Amino acid sequence: MLAQISDDGGVEFARPDRPLIRADDRAVVRGDAVFETLRAAGGRLDNESAHLDRLEGSAAAMGLPVPDRAAWTELARQVTAAWGARSEGMLRLVYSRGVEDSGRPTCLAMMSSVPESTLRHRRDGVRVVTLARGLAAADHADAPWLLVGAKTTSYAVNMAAQRHARAIGADDAIFLATDGQVLEAPTATVVWAVGKTLCTPPVEAGILDGTAVRALFRRAPEHGLSTDIRRAWVADLHAADGVWLTSSVRGAVVVTAIDGQVRGDAGLTPRVQSAAGL
Amino acid sequence: MLAQISDDGGVEFARPDRPLIRADDRAVVRGDAVFETLRAAGGRLDNESAHLDRLEGSAAAMGLPVPDRAAWTELARQVTAAWGARSEGMLRLVYSRGVEDSGRPTCLAMMSSVPESTLRHRRDGVRVVTLARGLAAADHADAPWLLVGAKTTSYAVNMAAQRHARAIGADDAIFLATDGQVLEAPTATVVWAVGKTLCTPPVEAGILDGTAVRALFRRAPEHGLSTDIRRAWVADLHAADGVWLTSSVRGAVVVTAIDGQVRGDAGLTPRVQSAAGL
Questions:
Q1: Which of A275, B19, B98, B188 could form a disulfide with B245 if both were Cys (CB 3.0 to 4.6 A apart)?
Q2: B134 CB near a chain A CB, below 8 Å?
Q3: Residues of chain A numbered 30-49 and touching chain B (CB < 8 Å)
Q4: What's the pLDDT at A278?
Q5: Are the CB atoms for A22 and B18 separated by under 8 Å?
Q6: pLDDT per residue over A120-167, tens digit each?
Q7: Given 3.30.470.10, 3.40.50.300, 3.40.30.10, 3.10.180.10, which CATH number is that of B2-114?
Q8: What are the E-state strand segments in chain A?
Q9: Pseudo-torsion of CA A25, A29, A34, A37, nearest 10°?
Q10: pLDDT tens-digit readout, B167-214
Q11: Does B3 touch chain A (CB under 8 A)?
Q12: How far is C-alpha A146 from the chain's CA centre?
C-alpha cells in the first residue's frame, strides 16, 4: 500500500512495485528526509498524533517546510483505511526535501505487513550487544546541526550496528556514549525495571524521544508499575529486574541476553507488553 | 543525464525527470546507500579509478555486494560520453541496497551541470565556521559499525551543518572533534599551508579519504609544494599561510575567513588550484 500527498495537497495512491521517487530526490542522494513508523491494528493507528508531532519536530530541526498537518493526517488515514482492519500493519511516513532546488518536498506513506523478525522478537525476545556510538552523552541543544532528537532517514550507522550485532550472533544492539552511558537501540528505546519501576534514559542524553515508551509509561500505573527517567550504565542494565526494547511496531520486546550474559525478566514481560498496548 | 545498471548488467538510460526509485528502496527509507561524486571535463572523468576504489571500500564497509567494476566503469563512461566534452559536469554514482529484501541493489549514475554555488566558491572562496561534530577524533577501526571512512548517503548532519553555516552568514563549515581537532568539511577535505608545505589531517582522525586531496598532493611537487599529513587544531588553521577546502567538483577553494576572522592565502591559491587540476 503506497500513497503520497499530491501537488494539490490531496492523497494519490500509487503502485508499490513501481518507481515513485526521482533519482535526484534529496532522500536518495543525501538521506535528507525525516520519517515515522507507526503500527496499524484493527484499522486504527497507534499514537497517531504523537508520531505526527514528532514528524513536525524532526522537520523543524531539518529546516524542512512545516508539514501540512491536515494533509498528513488524511494521507495516513486513507492508507490505513485502504489497508483495512483484518491484519496488523507497519505504516512508514517519509518526508523528504524532494528534488534538488525544486522546493517541493516528497510526502509519502507506505503500509506493509509486520516483518516476520518483529513477530519473532515479540515472542522470543532479543539478545543484544552493546556498541560504542562514538558520541558523548550530552545536551546537544547548543549544536542543532547534529540533529539529535530528529528522526532522519540517515540511518546507515543504525543499520550497520544491527548488521554487526547479527554477524556476531545477537539480534540487536544498544548504543553506549563515550562515557559508557546507555543511549538507545538503533531502532528502539531502552527500558529497564528496578523492582516495579520502569526506567528509561532522558532525551537529554542525546536520544530520540520514543513514542512507544511514552505510551508505555502513560499506561504503566494501570498495570501496577511506576516509572522514572534516569541515566544508566551497562552495570545498571545487568542489575535490572528486566530489560526491554520498545518501538512502535515491536511494542516491548524482552532482552534475554546482554553481551552474551543471559538475563531474566522477573516475570514482568506480559505486564509490560500489556502496558505497551500489545 | 541519468542511467542505471540494469538487471542484466548493462547500461540503461532513463529520463531524469521521471521517477526511477521505488519508495521502499533502502536509500529512501534508511540512507542505506553509498555514493561518489566525480568531475567530468572534456569528456573525461577525473580520478575515475580512485573514486571506484572508494565506492568498493564504502560498499565493503556497509556489507553491500561487491560492486561489478566492469559494469560501473561502463555506466560511468557511457553517461560521460553522452554528456559530451562541451561542458564541465558533476557525475554522481549512487549504490543502494535496493528494495527491501529483494537482494537487488540499485546502481545509478546522474550527470548534471556544476552548481552555480560551486563556480562562485572557486572564484571567491568561502567563509567557514567551525562546528562540533560530537565525535571523538579516534581510530575507529575497532568499531566498523560507525562506518568511518565509508561515503554513505546518510548525510543529514553534513547538510544541516552547511545550512547552519549559511544561516549565520558563512558559506560552509569545518567539523571539529570533541578535543577540538580539525576533522573535515561536510563535503570536502581541509588543506592548509605551512610555508610551501600543504598539510591535511590523517584519515585515522576519523575522516573520509579524500580523492581530490590525494590528487592534489600527488601533483604538488611539480608545482613547488611539499606535502605532509598531520593533526591540527583551530589555532593551526589560523596560523597557516593559507587554508583550502578540496573536493572533486570544487577543486581547491580558498578559505577567506574562519569563524569571522578574515585570513589570507599568501598568494598560493592559483598554484594550489593548478596542482588540484582545476
A1: B188
A2: yes
A3: 30-33, 35
A4: 83
A5: yes
A6: 999 999 999 999 998 877 757 689 999 999 999 999 999 999 999 999
A7: 3.30.470.10
A8: 2-5, 11-14, 33-41, 44-45, 89-96, 106-113, 126-132, 172-176, 189-194, 197-200, 226-229, 242-247, 251-258, 261-262
A9: 90
A10: 999 999 999 998 899 999 999 999 999 999 999 999 999 999 999 999
A11: no
A12: 18
Residue of B145, B148, B178 to mutate for A, most A C-beta atoms under 10 A: B145
CATH class in words for B123-275? alpha beta
A17 at B interface, C-beta within 8 A: yes
A/B interface, count of CB pairs below 8 Å: 185
CB contact under 8 A, A152 and B150: no
CB contacts of A96 in chain B (<8 Å) are 28
Per domain, the residue ranges of chain A are 2-114, 121-275
Helix (H, G, I), strand (E, B) or coil at B140: helix
Determine whether domain A121-275 maps to CATH 3.20.10.10.
yes
Is any Cβ of chain B less than 8 angstroms from the Cβ of A155? yes
The distance of B128 to chain A (nearest Cα, Å) reads 15
Tell me the one-letter amino acid at A188: A
- Cβ of B22 within 8 Å of Cβ of A25? The answer is no
Tell me if B20 and A18 make a contact (CB, 8 A cut-off): no
C-alpha cell at A107: 510526502
Q: Contact B154/A157, CB-based, under 8 Å?
A: yes
**Exposed, middle or buried by CB within 10 Å (0-12, 13-18, 19+), for B233?**
middle
What residue type is assigned to position B223 of the chain?
A: H
The verdict on a CB contact (< 8 Å) between A28 and B24 is no
Fill in the amino acid letter for A250.
R
What is the predicted pLDDT for the residue at B139?
A: 59
- Tell me the C-alpha distance between B260 and B240, whole Å: 16
CA–CA distance, B209 with B56 (Å, rounded to integer): 13
State pLDDT tens for residues A42-97: 999 999 999 999 999 999 999 999 999 999 999 999 999 999 998 999 999 999 99
A16 touches chain B (CB under 8 A): yes
Calculate the alpha carbon distances from A121 to A128, A246, A267 in Å: 12, 11, 17
Using a CB–CB cutoff of 8 Å, tell me whether B208 touches chain A: no
